[in-house]
Structures are given as C-alpha cells and as structure tokens.
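REQUEST ID: PR-0412
SUBMITTED BY: lab tech R.K.
PRIORITY: routine
TASK: structure prediction, single protein chain
INPUT:
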Amino acid sequence: MTIRVIIVDDQAMVRAGFAALLAAQPDIDVVGEASDGRQGVEAARSAHPDVVLMDVRMPELDGLAAAREILSPPPGVTHRPKVLMLTTFDVDDYVYEALRAGASGFLLKDAPPADLIAAVRVVAAGEALLAPSVTRRLIADFAASRPAPRRDTAALRLNGLTPRETEVLELIARGLSNQEIASGLVLAEQTVKTHIGRVLAKLDLRDRAQAVVFAYESGLVTPGTA
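STATUS: complete
OUTPUT:
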C-alpha cells in the first residue's frame, strides 16, 4: 500500500530534497507540496495524504496552527492524516504544543535521510515517533517547563485503567517500544498491543503521542525521569 505524503515547508530547497528522497521509495508517493501553513491545510484537504510533513515556523500560518486545523477538520471533512512536525532544538515549545494538538511526533530537520524515510513509515502505520532517546528527553523537558492544567481531571481518568494498563501507559511515556514493554513485563508483544489499544480507547486518546502527554499531565510520570 502506497503512503501518500505532502511536504509543507517555506524553504524550496528543503521541499525539493525531501520530495526527491521520499519519491524514490517504492512505497511512498509525494502527492503535494506547500510553502506555508495555509497552503498546507488546503493541500491536506485536497490531496488526502496519509502523512503531512509540517515545518514549525512558516509565514501566513505557522506549522502549529496548520496542524491544529488539519487534525481538527470542520464538519463534513472526514479525512484526517497523520502530522509529523519538522523542527530544530530551538523550537521545542512549539513541538510540545503540537503533540498536545494531536501531531504524531516530530523529526529534527537535520536527521539522516534514512530516519526521515523510517519516520514517514512509522507514522503512516499508526505509531507515534517517540522512540529515540532525544525525544524522550525533550518530552520530559516540555512537561517540566509548564504547569499541567488538567492534572486533576486527568488523574481521575487514570482510575478507569486496570493496574496492568496503567503500567503499560507509564512505560509508553518513558519511551519504550512495544517489544521493550513486552520483554520487561514478560508478555507477548500482541498482548502489549491489546493493552495499548484499551488504554487509548478508555482515555479517548488518538495515539501514543497523546498518551505520553497525558501521562505527564496526569502526574503518572514525573518529568525528567523518562
């Protein structure tokens, strides 16, 4: 199955480089490009991509606002792609807000080409791009740098989880993969996937990215210990 991708970045050379790299993959099809957030939203509505590569800082409409519009479509628009934010270390605050808005993760713009290709595939498959150690550290920093306004409500929602589901959620928030969770808890990987599905359903969360944010905001995981 071909993964449909659009690239939203205000730098033409960046778009061209990413497009050439991704289009060379047999399972990826670049179906659109945009030079600002507003055009990115329009492209996402018309091209029906599976994944949107979204730069953070752009004219007209920044990547965060564009991601919010794409991930919260108006009535009548049923297609909702995955959004992968492209960022650098100096825009960490925007990345945290993007994850809260429902983005499936982020990738540093100077990451190796193989990482970009892998990231598109991971996000298209429904996973969140939260495995790298740098991401675990940054997510902890995001949570530590601001209050958690929904802590009381989030903590109450945790009560609906079983002890095992709570344990799995904590390990997700610490950046462990399904395989690592299965090994640590001595479970089959399919069992871990089942637990994760139940956690997301009970907490009304879209994916692992939102699960990580929820775990910090509920107080289940203490920032800086991931």
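NOTES: The mean pLDDT is 82.
REVIEWED BY: pending
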